[in-house]
Amino acid sequence: MSRPVTDLATLESLYGDAVAASIAKEVPALTPGYRALIEASPFFVLATGGPGGLDASPRGDEPGFVRVADDRTLLIPDRRGNNRIDSLRNILADPRVGLLFLVPGLNETLRVNGRAVIDTDPALCDSFAVDGKAPKSVLVVSIETVFFQCARALLRSRLWDPAAQVPRASLPSVGSLLAEASAGREGGDAYDRSLAERIPQSLY
């Protein structure tokens, strides 16, 4: 039988007090160690919310693509994508953002919460150019809190363990997923055949 938790007192009594270290590690600005984790990370997940709902978007590039302007400010190029711009739409309505950074091989992650602004200053965008291609905008994130997350989730999931990798061919292809979701209007074998060439040509 379902037993939903509907009040804070019940929730807190269920889990008990937070571990002291989990509170002490949260700070309002980057420490040297936290900065090092961001500069080593090639990937993070950007969480946003707006009138249309919530969104979690993967963002990745070479380590250092998230630029630390100072201990309270991050600069993030909005690299080329599919132009859905779900995250950017949300930020216009609600600037609050959450970022979860991963570093390959490292089981700890880094969490940043703050507020973002979409900046289109030409000089700023040009400073993030790759192969002569600049992003259309840069997210300027003002940090409010930052802390590391312990290794349990990645250890349980064996995320970096080569033996846990799933063979790509054992799961549906991108073309088949798209065809299934669109009732055949998009995707299919032709989509899969063109993907290997199209993606590298459209990274930036």
TrEMBL record:
Residues in Pyridoxamine 5'-phosphate oxidase N-terminal domain copies: 31-150
Coiled coil: none
Pfam families: PNPOx_N
Gene3D superfamilies: Electron Transport, Fmn-binding Protein, Chain A
Protein name: Pyridoxamine 5'-phosphate oxidase
Transmembrane intervals: none
SUPFAM superfamilies found in the cross-reference section: FMN-binding split barrel (SSF50475)
